[in-house]
Amino acid sequence: MTSLDGAAPARRLPLVRRLMLRDFRSYGALDLRIGGRLVVLCGENGAGKTNLLEALSLLGPGRGLRRAELSECARLDGAGGFTLSVEVEEDGETRRLGSAWSPAEAGGGERKHRIDGAPVASSRAFSDHVRIVWLTPAMDSLFAGPAGERRRFLDRFVLAIDPGHGARVNAFERALRGRNRLLEEDRRNAAWLDAVEREAAELGVAIAAARLECVSRLEALIAAERDDASPFPWARLALDGEVEALAASGPALDAEDRYRALLRDNRGRDAAAGRTLVGPHVGDLSVWHGPKDAPAATASTGEQKALLVGLALAHARLVADMSGIVPIALLDEIAAHFDPRRRAALFVALARLGGQTFVTGADPATFADLADRAEAFEVSAETGVRSRAQA
Shortest CA distance to 179 belongs to which of 190, 168, 166? Predict the structure, then answer.
């Protein structure tokens, strides 16, 4: 496939060859060697399959596929923290990426990151070596659910191509909390409000611009590869919101000035509401079922699942185009939802991505057609993780 500008992209292909865990979720200790590109993790519900995907998802920026607090990832009867480490192979060379979290005496905790044993500031440094994308059953209600879920879904897409996006979102949320506190005061400090609104405007426009760029590029890629006959229907996307419209209409500095004016003019309304009512934190991602030209929320449950997979596959290709790194895909209990035709098409589409994919499922029959194409592991709460060839 060519990149969006027509040039053939040079792609890096990192592969996870070893996953090591200590006191992570249900795993006291694990040292799993991995040889395949398509990796099947099969086992009963509660066996620990999703825990393995979650560990891999923490190689990316953010809070992982469960969005859990790090304290929740520590094994209940463990030492109090956890460590995770992976060996990533690329072009015959191996890198070790690792994270460790330990509780702090005063609450919270401390997370440390290393690459080949050397400390790095954050997990954002891992993005130079791997990119991670995922789908989970929790996303099934995305199109009919609240706007906040779609914003988080889109932000995960943006993070995979712009690892700094999460820091901007967090800083913007802190700025809004500061503004809300100032608005609650009986005697408001205008100078402080001006300062915090200036920061919020700069961050808010940057967030909206990053989301808009991601949606625009994704739309272009989908249009270039559109196939009405595909079992995974193509989607039309749009980003809705006042600040999003400002960011799309002209230079960033002009958008920041106009958003700052909105914040200033709406201080009274926002004080009465107890929250800031205008900003990228209230925007929404609109999704349409392309072949039917209908809102995704009105599609059947099966159509929504297929549409979601189609979006995820397109996003994985976009990540490869923009970063030059073919992402590692994590699919939790996805294949079981589809009929045999769509399931077969999913495995073909995953192979075309060219990267490494981890899939989970409870029923081995779901993966029967992959017997000679996948490396399969049996996951059990009693016996741990074993190659199915040895189980």
Answer: 190
pTM of the entire structure? 0.91
Q: What is the pLDDT of residues 217-250, one digit of tens each?
A: 999 999 999 988 889 999 999 999 999 999 999 9
The annotation status of 109 as a binding-site residue, yes or no, is no
Which residue did the predictor score with more confidence, 344 or 19?
19
Output b/e per residue, 91-115; b: 16+ Cβ within 10 A. eeeebebbbbbeeeeeeeeeeebbb
47 in a known ligand binding site: yes
pLDDT in tens, 267-284: 999 999 999 999 999 999
Instruction: Say whether 105 counts as a known binding-site residue.
Output: no
Strand, coil or helix: 209: helix
Query: What torsion do the CA atoms of 116, 121, 123, 124 make, to the nearest 10 degrees?
Result: -110
43 is in an annotated binding site: yes
Residue 309 φ/ψ, nearest 5 degrees:
-65, -40
**CB pairs under 8 A, 24+ apart, for 118-123?**
122/61, 123/58, 123/59, 123/60, 123/61, 123/99
Domains of the chain: 14-142+329-391 (3.40.50.300), 144-298 (1.20.1050.90)
- CA–CA dist 60, 45 (Å, integer): 25
Cβ contacts of residue 66 below 8 Å, gap of 6+?
A: 50, 54, 72, 136, 138
Task: Tell me: is residue 46 an annotated ligand-binding position.
Answer: yes
Positive or negative: CA dihedral 237, 336, 333, 125? negative
Q: Which residue has the higher pLDDT, 383 or 119?
A: 119
pLDDT of residue 185: 84
Structure tokens at 308: 């979601």
